[in-house]
Amino acid sequence: NKRLNNFLLSVTHELKTPITALKLINKTIATKSLSPEQQTELLQTAEEETTRLESLVNNILTAAQMESAYKFNFEKTNLSDLLLNRIQRFQKINKEIEIIKEIKEPHSFIKADKEALTKLVDNLIDNALKYSKGAKKIIVRSEENQSSVSLSIIDYGKGIKNEERKKILSKFYRTGDEDIRETKGTGLGLFIVKEIALAHKAKLSIIDNPEGGAIFKL
Fold first, then answer.
1. Which helix (H) or strand (E) holds 58?
2. Of 22, 185, 199, 203, which one has the greatest count of Cβ atoms within 10 A?
3. In contact, 30 and 23? CB cutoff 8 Å
4. Under 8 Å between Cβ of 204 and 197
5. How far apart (Å, rounded) are the C-alpha atoms in residues 145 and 165?
6. Cα separation of 170 and 30, whole Å?
């Protein structure tokens, strides 16, 4: 299966990259005399690489669980607080692109599996940032009416072709050429988003952003 082989190649590369970076940072700190500023910069880079590694491992585990043993625990969840927390986390490790908050206040509460919903939000924000090369912002927006709550992640990247909109929700699928890509990824993120959305009986739509890019709306 070509798609599975590409996944294995991608995941091997993406595991090796942060591990190599962390080993180099440890060696530099251990063997060189560094100023406090240099140490702080290296430690910040180490935190970013550790977060990247953690996210990758979590996605692999979650994708495996989604098809077999994942048990959802639905409870009253503060969606607004969850979104603000994840935006803060991503903004800390992504300085180049501004994450604009358009969050419903007073806070929106929904019945959800908080851990799964966090993974869904993380994958949507990560996806928007990943495909926003050259853009200056993405928007995270939540809205509420009498019968429903909606979440939109809006990017200003290249957008998604109509023929690829269903494919990108498949396991291991990545947009564009299978062999040569500028962006990093394993093709698991949007598969996880789809599965978590289904479990929450949420409608997932992929819409053209009129200003260029894509809108993922739940």
1. helix 36-66
2. 185
3. no
4. yes
5. 27
6. 44
Region label for 212, one of left (φ > 0), alpha (ψ between -120 and 50) or beta (otherwise): left
Nearest to 121, CA basis, from 168, 91, 156, 87? 87
Short-list 77, 87, 75, CA closest to 107: 77
Between CA 117 and CA 78 the distance in angstroms is: 11
- pLDDT tens digit at each of 218 positions of the chain: 665 566 666 677 677 777 888 888 888 888 888 888 888 888 888 887 887 788 778 777 777 777 677 788 999 999 999 999 999 989 888 888 999 999 977 788 999 999 999 999 999 999 999 888 788 999 999 999 888 899 999 999 888 887 787 778 776 666 654 443 444 566 778 888 998 999 899 999 999 999 989 999 99
Specify the residue for token string 């299978």: 178
Sign of the CA dihedral with 159 first, then 160, 161, and 162 last: negative
